[in-house]
Design brief:
Blueprint: E1 6-23, E2 31-32, E3 35-36, H1 45-51, E4 56-62, E5 67-73, E6 76-80, E7 95-111, E8 119-120
């Protein structure tokens, strides 16, 4: 199923101390050295739109103890919220990032122009 407005990372038995996601354009993403591969195409246009300029995203992190939901605009996390815990998919106006893991201490979303500090989840 094609879900261009979603990033789902499910690692239910994994403990992660720090996770950093740096989003930048993938240049020449359908070629490898001298050859063009028709089945190789990595597009990340929707995630780029979400963290650059006026984009918007929702970050949902499910751990064994709690579900964290954050709303962001550009690379800034705007607010913590309890709304959206049941959310499972994104839209063209709100990119959805869903991480499931056993435990996660820190998370950061950044782009080439804006390197934010890690957000501590505890």
């Amino acid at each position: 199923m094609d879900e261009p407005h979603n990033l789902k990372l499910f690692l239910p038995f994994t403990t992660i101390h720090t996770l950093s996601w740096t989003i930048r354009p993938l240049l020449e993403n359908n070629a490898y050295q001298d050859g063009l591969y028709e089945n190789c195409l990595l597009e990340n246009l929707e995630s780029i739109k979400a963290v650059f300029l006026e984009g918007q995203y929702t970050l949902k992190i499910d751990t064994r103890e709690k579900t964290y939901v954050r709303r962001g605009k550009g690379s800034q996390i705007l607010e913590e919220q309890d709304q959206g815990v049941g959310m499972t998919t994104g839209t063209k106006d709100n990119f959805f990032i869903w991480i499931k893991c056993l435990d996660l201490d820190e998370f950061r979303i950044s782009n080439d122009w804006n390197q934010n500090d890690f957000e501590k989840l505890r």
